[in-house]
Design a protein that fits this description.
alpha+beta; SMI1/KNR4-like; 2 domains; 9-stranded mixed β-sheet; two-stranded antiparallel ribbon; 18% strand
Length: 296
């Protein structure tokens, strides 16, 4: 078992508690930011990541501006702030938030899903008495069961910050859309309440809050054991001693120093070095210590 900041970690999906904390204050600048209506809800988001994966980066304002241009409408502000902070991913083990923009790994995006859904409704309008309503929605998510989730850009529930009415559209039940919040923040609360039973049987079932797993890009590259042995033995076992100090004493701030020692020993594994220098000690650090010390 690795030690980091005195928190229990495991080798599967790990709770990254820091991601959901309020950003009302900045530890670096000391500036106090104005509280926003979604802050309390975002504080309840519990992010789970697997230490073995490289994850999709959070979405930038430039990408979201481009999405607004493609859709021809403003994004709900709390949706915009959520994907900037947390990225896209799976909500409550069921709701799959589509990418703001298509990627090489997954061609489904908010714009493409919206276009495809509107095209389908247009072709099959005879079966949808509420076709005009469905044709104006923005479809931002779907589920493994074929359900869709959308907001209505015409039904503005708040002018500033800009928010819209959100809907749940069951598979084969689009003619009876279900209200799911007057903002994306309220949609998060709706999803938590609606899909909580799906947590049963999962390791994180009893973890409170709104569960979220960001999309991952790929599995990290594991170094060969022979290479690891060389790195750990180099310069009187400097890297090994640092790694053990991090594990045994919880000195997570030594990860960048460990990266320097590994690089000096000849390590060129970018995933390993990046995990030490820029990764989360409680997530990526778990992977580093497991690979170097072989203990779990």
């Amino acid at each position: 078992m690795a030690k980091s900041h005195g928190k229990r970690v495991c080798w599967d999906d790990v709770l990254d508690g820091s991601w959901g904390r309020s950003r009302a204050s900045s530890p670096t600048s000391g500036l106090i930011e104005t509280a926003q209506p979604w802050d309390a809800v975002f504080d309840e988001v519990r992010v789970f990541r697997n230490p073995d994966f490289i994850y999709v980066r959070s979405v930038t304002d430039a990408v979201l501006d481009e999405l607004e241009a493609l859709l021809g409408t403003r994004l709900p502000r709390s949706y915009r702030e959520f994907v900037k902070r947390f990225g896209e991913g799976e909500l409550e083990h069921w709701v799959m938030l589509h990418r703001a923009m298509p990627s090489n790994e997954d061609g489904i995006s908010v714009a493409s899903h919206t276009r495809d859904h509107r095209d389908f409704v247009s072709r099959e309008a005879v079966y949808y008495p509420n076709a005009p309503f469905l044709l104006r929605l923005v479809y931002f998510a779907s589920s493994g069961g074929g359900d869709t989730y959308a907001w209505d850009p015409v039904d503005v529930t708040c002018s500033e910050p800009h928010e819209c009415q959100f809907y749940y559209l069951p598979r084969l039940g689009e003619v009876n859309p279900v209200l799911a919040g007057r903002s994306f923040a309220e949609f998060l609360q709706w999803a938590e309440n609606h899909y909580r039973p799906l947590r049963e049987g999962r390791a994180e079932a009893h973890t409170p809050g709104i569960h979220f797993k960001p999309w991952h890009l790929r599995i990290k590259e594991v170094a060969r054991q022979n290479d690891i042995n060389v790195w750990l033995a180099h310069n009187n076992r400097t890297a090994r001693l640092i790694a053990r100090s991090i594990r045994d004493r919880g000195q997570a701030d030594a990860f960048p120093i460990l990266a320097d020692a590994l690089q000096e020993a000849g390590c060129t594994n970018a995933d390993l070095l990046d995990s030490c220098r820029t990764g989360d000690p409680d997530i990526d650090g778990v992977w580093v210590l497991r690979m170097l010390l072989g203990e779990g």
